[in-house]
Design a protein that fits this description.
The chain is mostly helical. The protein is 65% helix and 0% strand.
Length: 85
Amino acid sequence: MVSAWIMNDATGTTTLSTMYRLLILWFFYHVVRALYNISPLHRLSHTPGPKLAAMTPLYEFWYDMIKFGTYTNEVARMHDTYGEC
């Protein structure tokens, strides 16, 4: 099975290296997107709050999946701390 990943495709490059390139491209895209979300170019960059919540959905994931559905409570707390948008 591993040898199937290492075999050459029609272009002469290995499929495994193509997979690595796609993985790197996917990772780079998400890093650039996260940085754009907190940059002054984004229309919501002036909105106060945690930068991780502005950058990625990881903040919501943490409170919904890891802390068992307490994201709505966290949003209420953030509104108390930072005020309404």
